[in-house]
Write a structure and sequence with these properties.
This protein is an alpha+beta fold and about 475 residues long. Helices cover about 25% and strands about 20% of the residues. Helix 8 packs across helix 9 and helix 8 packs across helix 10.
Length: about 475
């Protein structure tokens, strides 16, 4: 029996996504769990796996066309299933937006889509179309959110959600880009050498008549300057007001929504401790003197967090609506700062990894996070997270939990400071850490016990590598 494949909600609260690459061709056999397609959202590229056996009978949504979550994107049929059965399944299911995308994407030389008319367009769309240069359809008003070329070219451009977001953030003009992807689709690498579109500059007056500057409505009247004076543009008037509005990206909205939900619905509490790190720094220097791969302080911290969770399993938990879920393995999220916001890829089975393994995997996840190439499973799960701002010189901070995780450790910088040893004042190197915990599943005593074990691991680093 034929089965519809729908665009999945590959990341939490994602409303739109695009097929970056179909990994199976029409007519090829598909097995459950086999990678079917790579799906691109504003956050990452996610590998989507088939949920049923059969043959890929139809591709409804081609590569590069953004569609809403839940829209049919393909059909998996049984071997030998009749075309009439597949047509019956599709009847009334395929939305006009997805169905209409096929001809244009298959033929990159198809005609440029017509801009919405004021009679049919929304007020916002009509305004954007009216303000656009002649023959150009604004990106937002193009069908499916695609970026067409100027009408004079007779062509049409396709761009993925990630490319469109980067173009908006960098003020790039996609009409100047020749896509190197399938059917001329613009991919991320095409933007690497593209410079932002130059801001319009008012031309100097050449006639004998003076040029009257354009001023904001609220500004007092300004007398006309001499004939050689350049007129004041609207852009410079905005700059003179002292601020610039940067539109929110989808990723920034998702971060804001998740953190607001966390802070308002999860009962946080905090525990702070100071760790002496002289022995850790000395051991790290010895290891790096002979190791082919350099180990960072953060690698020691991640390993110490995992060992402490093994020693205090009551802290390796999350809250669910029906039970407290305890984990047998330690899966940790590591906060990675990217150009567009914070991502927290998950490192699996940290309790069984060496420092070298941790260093390699963290570097790999961080690199692909900044390139927008993380997979779905790399952003899901975990019970605990590490956020390290020590490299920025931050002494101490408190982090917000990433639900459903029940703990996050905020790590400050290791600095020399006054310490007391056996009643004597001296100079030592210490690091301040703050644990944020979900009080629904982690009690104060459990958090304190976990913190004591973590401090012991940091101050006796040989214990976590033996």
């Amino acid at each position: 029996m034929a089965t519809l494949v729908r665009m999945p909600e590959v990341l939490a609260n994602a409303a739109e996504a695009a097929i970056q690459t179909w990994l199976v061709q029409v007519g090829e056999t598909v097995a459950i769990g086999q990678p079917l397609a790579e799906i691109e959202t504003e956050k990452a590229v996610v590998e989507y796996r088939a949920e049923t056996d059969g043959v890929l009978a139809r591709v409804i949504v081609p590569e590069g066309v953004p569609v809403e979550v839940g829209v049919p994107i393909g059909v998996i049929a049984a071997v030998g299933e009749a075309e009439a059965d597949i047509d019956a399944l599709l009847a009334g299911e395929v939305p006009e937006r997805a169905g209409a995308a096929n001809p244009d994407s298959a033929n990159p030389n198809s005609a440029t889509p017509q801009a919405p008319t004021p009679d049919t367009a929304s007020p916002d769309t009509a305004t954007r179309v009216a303000a656009a240069p002649a023959g150009v359809v604004p990106v937002e008003s193009a069908p499916g959110g695609q970026a067409p070329l100027a009408a004079a070219t007779g062509g049409r451009q396709f761009a993925s959600p990630l490319v469109r977001r980067i173009a908006r953030e960098r003020a790039l003009d996609l009409s100047r880009v020749v896509g190197s992807g399938p059917n001329g689709r613009i991919v991320r690498r095409d933007l690497d050498n593209l410079q932002p579109a130059p801001a319009p500059v008012a031309a100097a007056a050449t006639g004998p008549e003076p040029v009257t500057p354009v001023t904001p409505v609220a500004s007092p009247p300004v007398s006309a300057p001499a004939a050689s004076t350049v007129g004041v543009t609207a852009a410079s008037a905005v700059d003179a007001s002292g601020f610039t509005d940067v539109p929110h990206t989808g990723m920034r909205r998702a971060i804001a929504r998740r953190l607001t939900e966390s802070k308002s619905t999860v009962p946080h509490f905090y525990i702070t401790a100071d760790c002496r790190v002289e022995r850790l720094l000395a051991l790290r220097s010895e290891i790096n003197a002979t190791s082919p791969r350099k180990i960072s302080v953060n690698d020691f911290i991640v390993k110490a967090v995992a060992v402490a969770l093994v020693r205090v399993p009551a802290a390796n938990v999350i809250w669910t609506e029906t039970a407290t879920r305890r984990f047998e393995h330690v899966d940790l999220s590591v906060a990675v700062s990217t150009e567009t916001g914070l991502l927290t890829p998950v490192l699996r089975g940290v309790e069984g990894l060496t420092l070298t393994n941790i260093s390699e995997r963290v570097a790999d996840l961080a690199g692909r996070a900044r390139q927008g190439k993380l997979r779905q499973q790399e952003l899901e799960g975990g019970s605990f997270a590490v956020s390290n701002l020590g490299m920025f010189g931050v002494d101490q901070f408190s982090a917000i939990l990433n639900p459903p995780q029940s703990g996050i450790l905020a790590v400050g910088a290791a600095k020399q400071r006054p310490v007391v040893d056996s009643g004597q004042l001296s100079v030592g190197t210490a690091m301040t850490v703050t644990l944020s915990a979900d009080h629904r599943v982690v009690d104060g005593a459990v958090a304190a016990e976990w913190m004591a074990q973590f401090v012991a691991c940091i101050e006796n680093p040989l214990s976590i590598i033996i």
